[in-house]
User: Fold this.
Amino acid sequence: MVQNEPEKKIRHIAIIMDGNKRWAKKHHLPTLKGHSEGAETVQKIMKAAKEFGIEYITLYAFSTENWKRSKREVEGLMSLLRFFINNNVEKINKDGIRLRAIGKIGMLPDKTRNVLLDAIEKTKNNKEGNLILALSYGGRAEIADAAKKIADDAIAGKIKTAEIDEKLFSTYLYNPDIPDPDLLIRTSGEFRISNFLLWQISYSEIWITDTLWPDFSKNELKTAIDTFYSRKRRYGGR
Assistant:
């Protein structure tokens, strides 16, 4: 690996986990089997990320647009989410990982939301790393929600409009203490952001692989990280 330079050390990797359905179709299996295999990959990548010293991993698990999928698939995904959390929360906790979530969590079914919130509460004091699940999440919705909160506070006299700048705006996002992603990974070869962390990825490096998410491996994560360290980041400067 290229030697780490302190000013550009990776702290946060965000991943658009794409390709579960295509993986299932490729293997002549039901769609939910693809999602199940994708959940297995999450466990492997969490372990690898910790080995590589990554403090934050944000996974695009369920978008606001995903509610448009068939009722059966949505129910299956919610069931799989509960299964994943229930089966992994003890290990996550033992490893010192803090589980967090961003998105319109109130839209999740009660049973799923309760399992999620219980796991978040159980791991809230952990400091060895952060796993952030983007659930019922949309980047535009997050920005719109932040704008509404700012407007409410301005009307209430809590802030002045002259004080509103990028730094202040950032404090109104879902989890403002989480640093912006250094690296955004998208699997399955699609060249789209898909409404993911639109504010936060302004200066993130992007790495795209044709590999479908269920086949994504520790070695590919290392390749993405190595690629990040080989790039020169200018942030608009020379």
